[in-house]
Amino acid sequence: YLEFVRSSDATGVDGKPMLNRYSTHLTREHDFPGAQAMLFAAGVPDRQAMQTAPHVGIASVWWEGNPCNMHLLDLGKEVKKAVTARGLLAWQYNTVGVSDAITMGNQGMRFSLQTREIIADSVETVTCAQAHDANITIPGCDKNMPGCIMGMARHNRPSLMIYGGTIDKGYSETLRRPVNIVTCYEAFGAYRYNTLRQPDDGGDTSKTKDEIIDDLERHACPGAGACGGMYTANTMATAIESMGLSLPGSSSTPASSPAKMRECAKAADAIKVCLEQDITPNKLLTKQSFENALVMTMALGGSTNAVLHFLAMAVTAGVELTLDDFQRVSNKIPFLADLAPSGKYLMADLYEIGGVPSVQKLLIAAGLLDGSILTVTGKTLAENVENWPSLPSDQVIIKDLKSPIKSSGHIQILKGNFAPAGAVAKITGKEGLKFTGKAMCFDKEVMLNEALNRGDIPRGENLVLIVRYEGPKGGPGMPEQLKASAAIMGAGLTNIALVTDGRYSGASHGFIVGHVCPEAAVGGPIGLVKDGDEVTIDAETNTISMDVTDEELERRRKEWTPPRMVVTRGVLAKYAALVSDASHGAVTDLF
Ligand code: FES
Protein backbone atom coordinates (compact mmCIF):
# COMPACT_ATOMS: atom_id res chain seq x y z
CA TYR A 1 0.00 0.00 0.00
CA LEU A 2 2.67 2.48 1.00
CA GLU A 3 4.69 1.78 -2.14
CA PHE A 4 1.61 2.48 -4.21
CA VAL A 5 0.45 5.59 -2.37
CA ARG A 6 3.74 7.15 -1.30
CA SER A 7 6.29 5.72 -3.68
CA SER A 8 9.82 6.64 -2.72
CA ASP A 9 11.33 4.88 -5.70
CA ALA A 10 12.20 8.07 -7.55
CA THR A 11 14.92 6.79 -9.81
CA GLY A 12 14.56 5.15 -13.21
CA VAL A 13 17.06 2.83 -14.94
CA ASP A 14 18.92 5.81 -16.42
CA GLY A 15 19.55 7.27 -12.95
CA LYS A 16 17.09 10.15 -13.57
CA PRO A 17 13.84 10.66 -11.63
CA MET A 18 11.26 8.18 -12.87
CA LEU A 19 8.48 10.44 -14.12
CA ASN A 20 5.75 7.78 -14.05
CA ARG A 21 6.77 6.18 -10.78
CA TYR A 22 3.19 5.98 -9.47
CA SER A 23 1.28 5.12 -12.61
CA THR A 24 3.82 2.48 -13.58
CA HIS A 25 2.32 0.26 -10.88
CA LEU A 26 -0.75 0.05 -13.13
CA THR A 27 0.77 0.36 -16.58
CA ARG A 28 3.97 -1.73 -16.58
CA GLU A 29 3.86 -4.94 -18.61
CA HIS A 30 0.49 -6.64 -18.20
CA ASP A 31 0.17 -6.72 -14.40
CA PHE A 32 -3.24 -5.06 -14.49
CA PRO A 33 -4.90 -5.73 -17.86
CA GLY A 34 -8.25 -4.51 -16.56
CA ALA A 35 -6.77 -1.14 -15.51
CA GLN A 36 -5.00 -0.80 -18.85
CA ALA A 37 -8.17 -1.62 -20.77
CA MET A 38 -9.94 1.13 -18.85
CA LEU A 39 -7.12 3.60 -19.52
CA PHE A 40 -7.11 2.82 -23.26
CA ALA A 41 -10.87 3.40 -23.27
CA ALA A 42 -10.36 6.72 -21.47
CA GLY A 43 -7.89 8.00 -24.05
CA VAL A 44 -4.35 6.58 -23.72
CA PRO A 45 -3.28 6.62 -27.39
CA ASP A 46 -0.84 3.69 -27.60
CA ARG A 47 1.29 1.13 -25.74
CA GLN A 48 4.31 3.45 -25.66
CA ALA A 49 2.30 6.16 -23.89
CA MET A 50 0.74 3.57 -21.59
CA GLN A 51 4.11 2.41 -20.35
CA THR A 52 6.11 5.63 -20.24
CA ALA A 53 3.97 8.77 -20.07
CA PRO A 54 3.41 10.28 -16.63
CA HIS A 55 -0.23 10.78 -15.64
CA VAL A 56 -1.17 14.33 -14.64
CA GLY A 57 -4.43 14.85 -12.77
CA ILE A 58 -6.03 18.24 -13.45
CA ALA A 59 -8.46 19.11 -10.68
CA SER A 60 -10.62 22.14 -11.22
CA VAL A 61 -13.09 23.38 -8.64
CA TRP A 62 -15.51 24.08 -11.46
CA TRP A 63 -19.19 24.65 -11.15
CA GLU A 64 -21.55 27.02 -12.88
CA GLY A 65 -23.36 28.91 -10.17
CA ASN A 66 -20.59 31.22 -8.98
CA PRO A 67 -18.43 33.77 -10.85
CA CYS A 68 -15.33 32.62 -8.96
CA ASN A 69 -15.69 29.08 -10.32
CA MET A 70 -17.74 29.19 -13.50
CA HIS A 71 -14.78 29.46 -15.92
CA LEU A 72 -12.51 26.87 -14.32
CA LEU A 73 -13.54 23.99 -16.58
CA ASP A 74 -12.36 26.02 -19.58
CA LEU A 75 -9.04 26.70 -17.90
CA GLY A 76 -8.76 22.98 -17.19
CA LYS A 77 -9.37 22.14 -20.86
CA GLU A 78 -6.61 24.56 -21.85
CA VAL A 79 -4.25 22.94 -19.35
CA LYS A 80 -5.13 19.48 -20.63
CA LYS A 81 -4.39 20.54 -24.21
CA ALA A 82 -0.98 21.90 -23.22
CA VAL A 83 -0.07 18.93 -20.98
CA THR A 84 -1.01 16.47 -23.74
CA ALA A 85 1.00 18.42 -26.29
CA ARG A 86 4.08 17.88 -24.12
CA GLY A 87 3.72 14.11 -24.25
CA LEU A 88 2.12 13.59 -20.85
CA LEU A 89 -1.25 12.01 -20.13
CA ALA A 90 -3.76 14.46 -18.70
CA TRP A 91 -6.90 13.53 -16.76
CA GLN A 92 -9.35 16.27 -15.89
CA TYR A 93 -11.57 15.86 -12.90
CA ASN A 94 -13.62 18.03 -10.66
CA THR A 95 -14.14 18.73 -7.04
CA VAL A 96 -16.77 20.88 -5.45
CA GLY A 97 -16.84 24.10 -3.51
CA VAL A 98 -19.51 26.57 -2.53
CA SER A 99 -19.76 30.30 -3.07
CA ASP A 100 -18.88 32.22 0.04
CA ALA A 101 -20.72 35.29 -1.17
CA ILE A 102 -23.90 33.44 -2.10
CA THR A 103 -24.05 31.48 1.14
CA MET A 104 -23.06 34.47 3.28
CA GLY A 105 -25.46 35.34 6.02
CA ASN A 106 -27.71 32.36 5.48
CA GLN A 107 -27.54 28.84 6.85
CA GLY A 108 -25.70 27.65 3.72
CA MET A 109 -22.57 29.39 5.03
CA ARG A 110 -22.17 26.60 7.61
CA PHE A 111 -21.17 24.35 4.73
CA SER A 112 -18.45 26.65 3.43
CA LEU A 113 -15.36 25.96 5.56
CA GLN A 114 -15.76 22.21 5.43
CA THR A 115 -15.58 22.35 1.62
CA ARG A 116 -11.88 23.05 2.16
CA GLU A 117 -11.67 19.52 3.60
CA ILE A 118 -13.83 18.08 0.82
CA ILE A 119 -11.49 19.58 -1.77
CA ALA A 120 -8.38 18.30 0.03
CA ASP A 121 -10.01 14.87 0.45
CA SER A 122 -11.01 14.78 -3.23
CA VAL A 123 -7.60 15.78 -4.58
CA GLU A 124 -5.82 13.33 -2.28
CA THR A 125 -8.31 10.57 -3.13
CA VAL A 126 -8.20 10.86 -6.92
CA THR A 127 -4.43 11.37 -7.06
CA CYS A 128 -3.66 8.38 -4.86
CA ALA A 129 -6.41 6.05 -6.07
CA GLN A 130 -5.79 6.69 -9.76
CA ALA A 131 -2.00 6.58 -9.37
CA HIS A 132 -1.41 10.02 -10.86
CA ASP A 133 2.21 11.08 -11.03
CA ALA A 134 1.54 14.80 -10.82
CA ASN A 135 -1.28 17.18 -10.05
CA ILE A 136 -2.42 20.58 -11.28
CA THR A 137 -5.22 22.21 -9.32
CA ILE A 138 -7.40 25.07 -10.54
CA PRO A 139 -9.27 26.73 -7.66
CA GLY A 140 -11.29 29.97 -7.66
CA CYS A 141 -13.25 30.84 -4.52
CA ASP A 142 -12.01 31.32 -0.94
CA LYS A 143 -11.72 27.80 0.51
CA ASN A 144 -10.64 26.32 -2.81
CA MET A 145 -7.02 27.46 -2.57
CA PRO A 146 -6.12 26.07 0.88
CA GLY A 147 -8.12 22.92 0.06
CA CYS A 148 -6.03 22.34 -3.07
CA ILE A 149 -2.73 22.95 -1.26
CA MET A 150 -3.75 20.62 1.59
CA GLY A 151 -4.58 17.96 -0.99
CA MET A 152 -1.13 18.42 -2.56
CA ALA A 153 0.56 18.25 0.84
CA ARG A 154 -1.19 14.97 1.57
CA HIS A 155 -0.32 13.17 -1.70
CA ASN A 156 3.07 14.93 -2.00
CA ARG A 157 3.47 14.41 -5.74
CA PRO A 158 4.79 17.11 -8.13
CA SER A 159 2.07 19.74 -8.17
CA LEU A 160 1.20 23.31 -8.91
CA MET A 161 -1.82 25.55 -8.58
CA ILE A 162 -3.40 27.84 -11.17
CA TYR A 163 -5.54 30.49 -9.54
CA GLY A 164 -8.81 31.10 -11.43
CA GLY A 165 -8.15 34.84 -11.19
CA THR A 166 -9.76 37.96 -9.91
CA ILE A 167 -12.97 39.51 -11.25
CA ASP A 168 -12.99 42.74 -13.28
CA LYS A 169 -14.22 45.96 -11.73
CA GLY A 170 -17.93 46.67 -11.67
CA TYR A 171 -19.42 50.10 -12.37
CA SER A 172 -22.77 51.57 -11.39
CA GLU A 173 -24.15 54.12 -13.86
CA THR A 174 -26.72 55.14 -11.26
CA LEU A 175 -24.13 55.90 -8.60
CA ARG A 176 -21.48 56.92 -11.12
CA ARG A 177 -18.77 55.05 -9.28
CA PRO A 178 -17.01 51.68 -9.29
CA VAL A 179 -18.83 49.00 -7.31
CA ASN A 180 -17.96 45.50 -6.21
CA ILE A 181 -19.44 42.72 -4.13
CA VAL A 182 -18.71 44.53 -0.86
CA THR A 183 -20.65 47.57 -2.06
CA CYS A 184 -23.64 45.23 -2.14
CA TYR A 185 -23.05 43.83 1.35
CA GLU A 186 -22.58 47.26 2.85
CA ALA A 187 -25.66 48.47 1.03
CA PHE A 188 -27.68 46.08 3.21
CA GLY A 189 -26.95 48.11 6.37
CA ALA A 190 -27.32 51.41 4.53
CA TYR A 191 -30.66 50.22 3.09
CA ARG A 192 -31.96 49.31 6.56
CA TYR A 193 -30.70 52.47 8.24
CA ASN A 194 -31.71 54.70 5.29
CA THR A 195 -28.19 55.92 4.59
CA LEU A 196 -27.83 54.50 1.08
CA ARG A 197 -25.70 57.03 -0.77
CA GLN A 198 -27.06 58.88 -3.77
CA PRO A 199 -24.61 59.93 -6.52
CA ASP A 200 -22.49 62.73 -5.13
CA ASP A 201 -21.19 64.17 -8.40
CA GLY A 202 -24.25 65.99 -9.59
CA GLY A 203 -25.80 62.91 -11.23
CA ASP A 204 -29.39 61.75 -11.03
CA THR A 205 -30.40 61.90 -7.35
CA SER A 206 -34.01 60.93 -7.92
CA LYS A 207 -33.50 57.18 -7.51
CA THR A 208 -35.28 55.38 -4.73
CA LYS A 209 -33.29 53.17 -2.40
CA ASP A 210 -34.79 50.10 -4.11
CA GLU A 211 -33.65 51.37 -7.51
CA ILE A 212 -30.15 52.01 -6.17
CA ILE A 213 -29.81 48.58 -4.58
CA ASP A 214 -31.19 46.94 -7.72
CA ASP A 215 -28.53 48.72 -9.78
CA LEU A 216 -25.80 47.59 -7.38
CA GLU A 217 -26.91 43.98 -7.58
CA ARG A 218 -26.88 44.09 -11.38
CA HIS A 219 -23.45 45.66 -11.82
CA ALA A 220 -21.21 44.66 -8.90
CA CYS A 221 -20.01 41.42 -10.55
CA PRO A 222 -19.36 41.96 -14.27
CA GLY A 223 -18.25 38.40 -15.14
CA ALA A 224 -16.02 35.49 -14.14
CA GLY A 225 -13.48 35.78 -11.36
CA ALA A 226 -13.10 35.83 -7.60
CA CYS A 227 -14.12 38.82 -5.47
CA GLY A 228 -11.88 41.70 -6.45
CA GLY A 229 -10.41 43.16 -3.26
CA MET A 230 -7.76 41.76 -0.95
CA TYR A 231 -10.44 39.43 0.38
CA THR A 232 -9.82 35.78 1.19
CA ALA A 233 -9.47 34.40 -2.36
CA ASN A 234 -6.96 37.02 -3.49
CA THR A 235 -5.18 36.84 -0.13
CA MET A 236 -4.69 33.09 -0.40
CA ALA A 237 -3.71 33.22 -4.08
CA THR A 238 -1.16 35.96 -3.41
CA ALA A 239 0.34 34.09 -0.46
CA ILE A 240 0.48 30.79 -2.35
CA GLU A 241 2.26 32.46 -5.27
CA SER A 242 4.74 33.87 -2.73
CA MET A 243 5.28 30.35 -1.41
CA GLY A 244 6.37 29.24 -4.89
CA LEU A 245 3.35 26.99 -5.51
CA SER A 246 1.93 28.79 -8.54
CA LEU A 247 3.41 30.55 -11.56
CA PRO A 248 4.60 34.16 -11.35
CA GLY A 249 1.66 36.53 -11.75
CA SER A 250 -1.01 33.85 -11.23
CA SER A 251 -2.63 35.63 -8.30
CA SER A 252 -3.07 39.02 -9.95
CA THR A 253 -3.87 38.02 -13.53
CA PRO A 254 -7.62 38.66 -13.96
CA ALA A 255 -9.87 35.73 -14.77
CA SER A 256 -10.99 37.26 -18.06
CA SER A 257 -7.50 38.19 -19.23
CA PRO A 258 -5.90 36.35 -22.18
CA ALA A 259 -2.84 36.10 -19.90
CA LYS A 260 -4.81 33.68 -17.71
CA MET A 261 -5.17 31.33 -20.70
CA ARG A 262 -1.46 31.68 -21.45
CA GLU A 263 -0.72 30.73 -17.85
CA CYS A 264 -2.49 27.42 -18.47
CA ALA A 265 -0.01 26.58 -21.24
CA LYS A 266 2.95 27.64 -19.13
CA ALA A 267 1.68 25.39 -16.33
CA ALA A 268 2.26 22.37 -18.58
CA ASP A 269 5.94 23.31 -18.94
CA ALA A 270 6.21 23.87 -15.20
CA ILE A 271 4.66 20.55 -14.21
CA LYS A 272 7.15 18.81 -16.50
CA VAL A 273 9.96 20.64 -14.73
CA CYS A 274 8.51 19.59 -11.35
CA LEU A 275 8.41 15.96 -12.51
CA GLU A 276 11.91 16.03 -13.98
CA GLN A 277 13.46 17.78 -11.00
CA ASP A 278 11.32 15.89 -8.48
CA ILE A 279 9.97 19.15 -7.01
CA THR A 280 7.39 17.83 -4.58
CA PRO A 281 5.09 19.81 -2.23
CA ASN A 282 7.20 18.93 0.82
CA LYS A 283 10.12 20.79 -0.82
CA LEU A 284 7.93 23.86 -1.36
CA LEU A 285 5.85 23.87 1.84
CA THR A 286 8.60 24.87 4.24
CA LYS A 287 8.87 27.17 7.21
CA GLN A 288 10.49 29.77 4.91
CA SER A 289 7.70 29.61 2.35
CA PHE A 290 5.06 29.97 5.09
CA GLU A 291 7.01 32.97 6.36
CA ASN A 292 6.69 34.46 2.86
CA ALA A 293 2.95 33.81 2.91
CA LEU A 294 2.62 35.69 6.19
CA VAL A 295 4.77 38.58 4.95
CA MET A 296 2.65 39.05 1.81
CA THR A 297 -0.56 38.85 3.81
CA MET A 298 0.61 41.56 6.20
CA ALA A 299 2.05 43.81 3.49
CA LEU A 300 -1.10 43.64 1.37
CA GLY A 301 -3.66 43.77 4.21
CA GLY A 302 -5.04 40.26 3.62
CA SER A 303 -7.96 38.47 5.17
CA THR A 304 -8.08 37.11 8.73
CA ASN A 305 -9.16 33.81 7.18
CA ALA A 306 -5.59 33.46 6.03
CA VAL A 307 -4.60 32.71 9.63
CA LEU A 308 -6.93 29.73 9.77
CA HIS A 309 -5.92 28.48 6.33
CA PHE A 310 -2.15 28.85 6.79
CA LEU A 311 -2.40 26.98 10.10
CA ALA A 312 -4.36 24.22 8.35
CA MET A 313 -1.92 24.04 5.42
CA ALA A 314 1.04 23.93 7.84
CA VAL A 315 -0.53 21.22 10.02
CA THR A 316 -1.17 19.18 6.88
CA ALA A 317 2.36 19.68 5.57
CA GLY A 318 3.94 18.93 8.94
CA VAL A 319 5.41 22.44 9.24
CA GLU A 320 5.43 23.99 12.68
CA LEU A 321 3.47 27.23 12.54
CA THR A 322 1.64 28.82 15.45
CA LEU A 323 -0.40 31.93 16.17
CA ASP A 324 2.76 33.46 17.67
CA ASP A 325 4.38 33.37 14.22
CA PHE A 326 1.60 35.58 12.89
CA GLN A 327 2.16 38.15 15.61
CA ARG A 328 5.93 38.04 15.11
CA VAL A 329 5.57 38.71 11.37
CA SER A 330 2.84 41.27 11.91
CA ASN A 331 5.14 43.20 14.26
CA LYS A 332 7.86 43.59 11.64
CA ILE A 333 6.03 43.94 8.31
CA PRO A 334 4.56 47.29 7.26
CA PHE A 335 1.04 47.39 5.88
CA LEU A 336 1.51 48.88 2.42
CA ALA A 337 -1.46 48.25 0.16
CA ASP A 338 -4.37 50.60 -0.37
CA LEU A 339 -6.57 47.68 -1.37
CA ALA A 340 -10.19 46.93 -0.47
CA PRO A 341 -11.75 46.19 1.93
CA SER A 342 -10.03 48.84 4.06
CA GLY A 343 -8.55 50.66 1.05
CA LYS A 344 -9.66 52.00 -2.32
CA TYR A 345 -8.22 49.70 -4.99
CA LEU A 346 -8.84 46.20 -6.30
CA MET A 347 -6.61 43.37 -7.51
CA ALA A 348 -7.43 44.35 -11.11
CA ASP A 349 -5.83 47.76 -10.35
CA LEU A 350 -2.72 46.08 -8.91
CA TYR A 351 -2.46 43.99 -12.09
CA GLU A 352 -2.30 47.18 -14.13
CA ILE A 353 0.81 48.37 -12.29
CA GLY A 354 2.75 45.10 -12.50
CA GLY A 355 0.81 42.75 -10.26
CA VAL A 356 1.99 40.61 -7.39
CA PRO A 357 5.48 39.82 -8.84
CA SER A 358 6.29 43.55 -8.83
CA VAL A 359 5.34 43.71 -5.15
CA GLN A 360 7.42 40.60 -4.46
CA LYS A 361 10.36 42.23 -6.22
CA LEU A 362 10.04 45.29 -3.97
CA LEU A 363 9.83 43.19 -0.81
CA ILE A 364 12.72 40.90 -1.82
CA ALA A 365 14.89 43.95 -2.49
CA ALA A 366 13.96 45.31 0.95
CA GLY A 367 14.95 42.03 2.59
CA LEU A 368 11.40 41.40 3.80
CA LEU A 369 10.53 38.49 1.51
CA ASP A 370 12.76 35.43 1.09
CA GLY A 371 13.69 35.29 -2.60
CA SER A 372 15.74 32.13 -2.16
CA ILE A 373 12.80 29.72 -1.85
CA LEU A 374 12.30 27.12 -4.56
CA THR A 375 9.26 27.46 -6.82
CA VAL A 376 7.34 25.33 -9.32
CA THR A 377 9.32 26.84 -12.20
CA GLY A 378 12.41 25.10 -10.87
CA LYS A 379 13.88 28.54 -10.14
CA THR A 380 13.89 30.60 -6.99
CA LEU A 381 11.28 33.26 -6.31
CA ALA A 382 13.91 35.96 -6.84
CA GLU A 383 14.88 34.48 -10.22
CA ASN A 384 11.22 34.35 -11.25
CA VAL A 385 10.68 38.06 -10.67
CA GLU A 386 14.07 39.53 -11.54
CA ASN A 387 12.98 40.51 -15.07
CA TRP A 388 9.50 41.55 -13.99
CA PRO A 389 8.87 45.33 -14.17
CA SER A 390 9.31 47.24 -10.95
CA LEU A 391 6.33 49.14 -9.59
CA PRO A 392 6.01 52.46 -11.46
CA SER A 393 7.24 55.46 -9.50
CA ASP A 394 3.91 57.28 -9.85
CA GLN A 395 1.66 54.44 -8.69
CA VAL A 396 -0.46 55.03 -5.57
CA ILE A 397 -1.65 51.54 -4.60
CA ILE A 398 1.46 50.17 -2.85
CA LYS A 399 2.79 52.74 -0.40
CA ASP A 400 6.45 53.50 -0.11
CA LEU A 401 8.23 51.40 2.52
CA LYS A 402 9.22 54.64 4.25
CA SER A 403 5.62 55.87 4.52
CA PRO A 404 3.39 52.81 4.95
CA ILE A 405 -0.29 52.89 5.87
CA LYS A 406 0.78 51.36 9.18
CA SER A 407 4.31 50.48 10.26
CA SER A 408 3.26 46.97 11.29
CA GLY A 409 0.73 44.40 10.07
CA HIS A 410 -3.03 44.70 10.43
CA ILE A 411 -3.54 41.17 11.80
CA GLN A 412 -3.19 41.01 15.55
CA ILE A 413 -3.26 37.89 17.71
CA LEU A 414 -5.04 38.59 20.98
CA LYS A 415 -5.13 36.55 24.16
CA GLY A 416 -6.59 37.11 27.61
CA ASN A 417 -9.33 35.85 29.88
CA PHE A 418 -11.80 36.21 27.00
CA ALA A 419 -9.74 34.03 24.62
CA PRO A 420 -7.07 32.03 26.49
CA ALA A 421 -6.12 30.03 23.37
CA GLY A 422 -6.10 33.06 21.10
CA ALA A 423 -8.23 35.20 18.82
CA VAL A 424 -7.54 36.95 15.54
CA ALA A 425 -8.21 40.64 15.02
CA LYS A 426 -7.98 42.73 11.90
CA ILE A 427 -6.96 46.19 13.01
CA THR A 428 -5.71 48.56 10.34
CA GLY A 429 -5.42 51.44 12.80
CA LYS A 430 -8.15 53.44 11.03
CA GLU A 431 -10.56 52.38 13.77
CA GLY A 432 -8.09 53.06 16.59
CA LEU A 433 -6.05 50.51 18.49
CA LYS A 434 -8.13 50.05 21.62
CA PHE A 435 -11.83 49.57 22.22
CA THR A 436 -13.79 49.12 25.44
CA GLY A 437 -17.52 48.57 25.52
CA LYS A 438 -20.41 46.78 27.16
CA ALA A 439 -21.06 43.24 26.00
CA MET A 440 -24.25 42.53 24.05
CA CYS A 441 -24.48 38.78 23.43
CA PHE A 442 -26.09 36.86 20.55
CA ASP A 443 -26.14 33.04 20.61
CA LYS A 444 -25.94 32.77 16.77
CA GLU A 445 -25.32 35.30 14.03
CA VAL A 446 -28.90 35.12 12.83
CA MET A 447 -29.99 36.80 16.07
CA LEU A 448 -27.67 39.73 15.49
CA ASN A 449 -28.82 39.99 11.88
CA GLU A 450 -32.42 40.14 13.07
CA ALA A 451 -31.51 42.88 15.57
CA LEU A 452 -29.79 44.83 12.79
CA ASN A 453 -32.77 44.25 10.53
CA ARG A 454 -35.04 45.80 13.13
CA GLY A 455 -32.59 48.69 13.64
CA ASP A 456 -32.25 47.58 17.28
CA ILE A 457 -28.52 48.22 17.74
CA PRO A 458 -28.32 51.65 19.34
CA ARG A 459 -25.88 54.40 18.41
CA GLY A 460 -24.09 56.17 21.25
CA GLU A 461 -22.59 54.06 24.03
CA ASN A 462 -19.73 51.74 23.00
CA LEU A 463 -20.92 48.18 22.51
CA VAL A 464 -19.05 44.93 21.96
CA LEU A 465 -21.43 42.71 20.01
CA ILE A 466 -20.62 39.09 20.77
CA VAL A 467 -21.71 36.38 18.37
CA ARG A 468 -21.07 32.92 19.84
CA TYR A 469 -21.79 29.24 19.28
CA GLU A 470 -20.51 29.84 15.74
CA GLY A 471 -17.10 28.10 16.07
CA PRO A 472 -15.91 25.03 14.11
CA LYS A 473 -17.88 22.63 16.32
CA GLY A 474 -20.59 24.96 17.56
CA GLY A 475 -21.65 26.49 14.23
CA PRO A 476 -21.10 23.85 13.15
CA GLY A 477 -18.79 24.91 10.36
CA MET A 478 -17.49 28.26 11.67
CA PRO A 479 -19.59 30.41 9.35
CA GLU A 480 -18.42 33.82 8.15
CA GLN A 481 -20.16 36.87 9.42
CA LEU A 482 -19.88 39.37 6.65
CA LYS A 483 -23.53 40.23 6.70
CA ALA A 484 -23.37 41.63 10.24
CA SER A 485 -19.99 43.36 9.91
CA ALA A 486 -20.89 44.86 6.54
CA ALA A 487 -24.29 46.00 7.79
CA ILE A 488 -22.64 47.72 10.76
CA MET A 489 -20.23 49.54 8.43
CA GLY A 490 -23.02 50.36 6.02
CA ALA A 491 -25.19 51.74 8.81
CA GLY A 492 -22.30 53.89 10.03
CA LEU A 493 -22.42 52.40 13.55
CA THR A 494 -18.99 53.58 14.74
CA ASN A 495 -19.63 52.70 18.40
CA ILE A 496 -19.40 48.97 17.72
CA ALA A 497 -16.78 46.25 17.98
CA LEU A 498 -17.71 42.77 16.82
CA VAL A 499 -16.33 39.62 18.48
CA THR A 500 -17.05 36.00 17.54
CA ASP A 501 -15.83 32.43 17.80
CA GLY A 502 -16.81 32.19 14.13
CA ARG A 503 -15.04 33.91 11.22
CA TYR A 504 -15.29 36.98 9.07
CA SER A 505 -15.22 37.24 5.35
CA GLY A 506 -12.03 38.68 3.93
CA ALA A 507 -14.24 41.56 2.86
CA SER A 508 -15.05 42.47 6.46
CA HIS A 509 -13.50 45.48 8.10
CA GLY A 510 -14.04 47.67 11.14
CA PHE A 511 -13.09 46.74 14.71
CA ILE A 512 -13.53 42.98 14.41
CA VAL A 513 -12.19 40.01 16.36
CA GLY A 514 -12.83 36.41 15.33
CA HIS A 515 -11.60 32.83 15.78
CA VAL A 516 -12.02 33.23 19.57
CA CYS A 517 -10.63 30.06 21.10
CA PRO A 518 -11.73 27.98 22.93
CA GLU A 519 -15.12 28.36 21.30
CA ALA A 520 -18.38 28.66 23.24
CA ALA A 521 -19.59 25.17 22.32
CA VAL A 522 -16.72 23.52 24.21
CA GLY A 523 -17.07 25.75 27.29
CA GLY A 524 -14.81 28.66 26.26
CA PRO A 525 -15.13 31.95 28.17
CA ILE A 526 -16.91 33.57 25.20
CA GLY A 527 -19.89 31.42 26.21
CA LEU A 528 -19.75 32.72 29.78
CA VAL A 529 -19.75 36.47 29.12
CA LYS A 530 -23.03 38.21 29.96
CA ASP A 531 -24.77 41.32 28.64
CA GLY A 532 -23.29 44.37 30.35
CA ASP A 533 -19.86 42.88 31.15
CA GLU A 534 -17.13 45.26 30.07
CA VAL A 535 -14.93 43.89 27.29
CA THR A 536 -11.64 45.48 26.25
CA ILE A 537 -9.79 44.81 23.00
CA ASP A 538 -6.28 46.22 23.01
CA ALA A 539 -4.11 45.85 19.92
CA GLU A 540 -1.15 47.46 21.66
CA THR A 541 -0.96 44.87 24.43
CA ASN A 542 -2.46 42.14 22.20
CA THR A 543 -5.15 41.36 24.74
CA ILE A 544 -8.86 40.72 24.79
CA SER A 545 -10.30 40.64 28.29
CA MET A 546 -13.50 41.08 30.25
CA ASP A 547 -13.91 42.66 33.68
CA VAL A 548 -15.04 39.39 35.23
CA THR A 549 -12.98 37.82 38.02
CA ASP A 550 -11.63 34.29 37.78
CA GLU A 551 -13.92 33.27 40.65
CA GLU A 552 -16.99 34.63 38.90
CA LEU A 553 -15.98 32.95 35.63
CA GLU A 554 -15.56 29.66 37.51
CA ARG A 555 -19.00 30.08 39.07
CA ARG A 556 -20.55 30.75 35.66
CA ARG A 557 -18.69 27.75 34.19
CA LYS A 558 -20.27 25.44 36.78
CA GLU A 559 -23.72 26.72 35.81
CA TRP A 560 -23.03 26.37 32.07
CA THR A 561 -24.36 23.36 30.21
CA PRO A 562 -23.17 22.41 26.73
CA PRO A 563 -25.73 23.18 24.04
CA ARG A 564 -27.56 20.31 22.41
CA MET A 565 -26.08 19.54 18.99
CA VAL A 566 -28.79 20.36 16.51
CA VAL A 567 -27.03 18.68 13.61
CA THR A 568 -26.72 14.96 14.31
CA ARG A 569 -26.38 13.39 10.84
CA GLY A 570 -24.75 14.25 7.55
CA VAL A 571 -21.66 16.12 6.56
CA LEU A 572 -21.84 18.82 9.24
CA ALA A 573 -22.25 16.23 11.99
CA LYS A 574 -19.15 14.42 10.69
CA TYR A 575 -17.32 17.74 10.52
CA ALA A 576 -18.29 18.77 14.06
CA ALA A 577 -17.13 15.42 15.41
CA LEU A 578 -13.73 15.55 13.71
CA VAL A 579 -12.74 19.20 13.54
CA SER A 580 -9.80 20.63 15.52
CA ASP A 581 -9.97 24.08 17.11
CA ALA A 582 -9.41 27.29 15.16
CA SER A 583 -5.96 27.83 16.67
CA HIS A 584 -4.93 24.58 14.93
CA GLY A 585 -6.52 25.44 11.61
CA ALA A 586 -9.88 23.66 12.08
CA VAL A 587 -8.68 20.59 10.15
CA THR A 588 -10.40 17.22 10.24
CA ASP A 589 -7.44 14.82 10.16
CA LEU A 590 -5.57 15.82 13.31
CA PHE A 591 -6.03 12.99 15.77
FE1 FES B 1 -15.74 33.58 -4.23
FE2 FES B 1 -15.74 35.95 -2.94
S1 FES B 1 -17.39 34.55 -3.20
S2 FES B 1 -14.07 34.89 -3.82
Describe this structure in a few short sentences:
The protein is of the alpha/beta class and 591 residues long. It contains 23 helices and 14 strands.
Written account of the structure:
The chain has 591 residues and is an alpha/beta fold. It is built from 23 helices and 14 strands. The chain has helices spanning 2-5, 24-27, 33-42, 47-52, 72-85, 100-103, 112-129, 144-155, 181-192, 209-219, 232-242, 258-276, 281-284, 287-300, 305-317, 323-332, 347-352, 356-365, 381-385, 445-453, 482-490, 550-559, 571-578, and strands spanning 55-60, 89-94, 134-138, 159-161, 170-172, 177-179, 411-416, 419-426, 434-442, 463-467, 496-500, 512-514, 534-538, 543-546. It is globular, with a radius of gyration of 24 Å. Bound molecules: FE2/S2 (inorganic) cluster (FES).
Strands ordered across the widest β-sheet = 7-8-12-11-10-9-13-14
Weakly predicted, low-confidence segments: none
Tally of contiguous helical segments: 23
The helix content is 25-40%
> Which ions and ligands are bound to the chains?
FE2/S2 (inorganic) cluster
pLDDT averaged residue by residue: 92
Could you state the oligomeric state of the chains shown?
single chain
From the alpha carbons, calculate the radius of gyration and give it in angstroms: 24 Å
The beta-strand count equals 14
Coarse shape: globular
Kindly report how far apart the N and C termini lie: 21 Å
Q: What percentage of the residues does DSSP assign to strands (E)?
A: 5-15%
Q: Tell me the structural class.
A: alpha/beta
Strand count, sense and barrel status of the largest sheet are: 8 strands, mixed
